[in-house]
């Protein structure tokens, strides 16, 4: 996680936050309970900061974009 960007987001006190967990955030050695704990911790921290609407997106995977038109 980019902690500088995360800190800036918390200072902005947005109305809506979207937490997108990427494929590089969860590795083959990651423990599911630890991943859920960390996501929950992030959501709770954003909520305590005054944001009423926090959404967690599905885990985004790295795609194969070689067939996309340029």
Domain count:
1
Strand order of the largest sheet: 1-2
> What is the element string, with H for helices and E for strands?
HEHE
pLDDT < 50 runs, ≥5 residues: none
What fraction strand?
Answer: 5-15%
Helix residue percentage: 25-40%
Instruction: Calculate the terminal CA-CA distance, rounded to whole Å.
Output: 30 Å
- Mean pLDDT across all amino acids: 79
Instruction: Characterize the largest beta sheet: strand count, sense, and whether it forms a barrel.
Output: 2 strands, parallel
Helical run tally:
2
Radius of gyration (CA) equals 14 Å
The SS-based structural class is alpha+beta
Beta strand count: 2
The outline comes out as: globular
Question: How would you sum up this structure, described in words?
Answer:
The chain starts with a helix and ends in a 14-residue tail after the last strand. By secondary structure, it is an alpha+beta fold. It has one domain. It has helices at residues 3-12, 32-48, and strands at residues 16-19, 53-56. Strands 1-2 form a two-stranded parallel ribbon. The longest helix has 17 residues, at 32-48. The protein has two helices and two strands. It is globular and about 35 Å long. The mean pLDDT is 79.
Give a quick set of tags describing it.
two-stranded parallel sheet; 70 residues; alpha+beta; single chain
Q: Secondary-structure blueprint of this entry?
A:
Layout: H1 3-12, E1 16-19, H2 32-48, E2 53-56
